[in-house]
Amino acid sequence: MRTPAVRPATPLSTAAWNRRPGALKAGDPARLWLTHTGDLLSAAEESAASALSPEERARAEAFRRAEDRNTYLVTHVALRMLLGGFLGAEPSRVPLERDPCPLCGGPHGRPVVRGNPVHFSLSHTGHLGLIALAAVPVGADIEAVPGPGSVLDVATALHPDETAELTACREGERGAAFARVWVRKEAYLKGLGTGLGRDPSLDYLGTAARGAVQPDGWEIGDVEVGEGYRAAVAVRVPE
User: Fold this and answer.
1) Which of 118, 116, 141 is nearest to 131 (CA)?
2) Which of 36, 44, 165, 218 is geometrically suited to a Cys-Cys bond with 207, CB 3.0 to 4.6 A?
3) Residue 10 exposed, middle or buried by CB count within 10 Å (0-12, 13-18, 19+)
4) CA 34 to the chain's CA centroid
5) Residue 193 has pLDDT above 70, yes or no
6) Burial letters for 27-63: b for 16+ Cβ neighbours within 10 Å, e otherwise?
7) Cβ–Cβ < 8 Å for 212, 222
8) Residue 75 pLDDT > 60, yes or no?
């Protein structure tokens, strides 16, 4: 399987989340949807009571900032609706749970549908969300491009060669380069199920615009999500 260097994400509509999609097959690329909070908020609020679990509704209400609450609500309702469509199930009855953590065995690994009939990953920032569904383990991440002044403070958390690349960047290009490597890293670590429990400095994925360096057993592709943001998807290569 090859993931293109840059892939588009399909803007999600309520018509799409109410439609049953075709089957997912091993070897197919991940299916990617981009959510815009303003476009979907009204429909998400109407569907939240029937689509979300009580725990998810409580988490949504716990946010202090309305923007954060609204984006959480939209992305989680959208995820539930899409999973329900793939599985032919009521969204609130999709049995979500956590795999064991690969690092410690605790119950906080990759979020999964019980029995793994479909794999998914969800990320959101600001007013945007990114949802990835696949037949194999998958990770997705989306982030706003930071200002160049804040990059070098956190760049030392990356692989030493990535830190060196960011240091060598022109100041005006540094924010975009950092966002590229960070979303690749987050997507990969989400796919592994470790999240940032695995040291981000261990894996070299690169900052280059031409695409990520591919780790063994995984395909990492950049995702086009619009100006001011960067996103990536990581898909495990079927054995």
Assistant:
1) 141
2) 165
3) exposed
4) 10
5) yes
6) eebbbbbbbbbeebbebbeebbeebbeeebbeebeee
7) yes
8) yes
3-state secondary structure 118-185: CEEEEEEECCEEEEEEECCCEEEEEEECCCHHHHHHHHCCCCHHHHHHHHHCCHHHHHHHHHHHHHHH
Average pLDDT over residues 44-58: 94
Amino acid at 174: R
Rg (CA), the chain: 17
> For residue 189, which of 173, 174, 205, 172 has the smallest C-alpha distance?
205
Contact 121, 132 (CB under 8 A): yes
107-132 pLDDT tens trace: 888 899 999 899 999 999 999 999 99
Which helix (H) or strand (E) is 235 found in, with range?
A: strand 229-236
How crowded is residue 72: how many other Cβ atoms within 10 Å of its Cβ?
21
For the cut 80, the answer to whether the pLDDT of residue 5 exceeds it is no
Predicted local distance difference test score (pLDDT) of residue 1: 45
Global confidence as pTM:
0.94
The whole-angstrom separation of Cα 124 and Cα 225 is 12
Residue that is written with structure tokens 């990520």 in the block: 212
Q: Is the dihedral angle over the CA atoms 41, 45, 50, 52 positive or is it negative?
A: positive
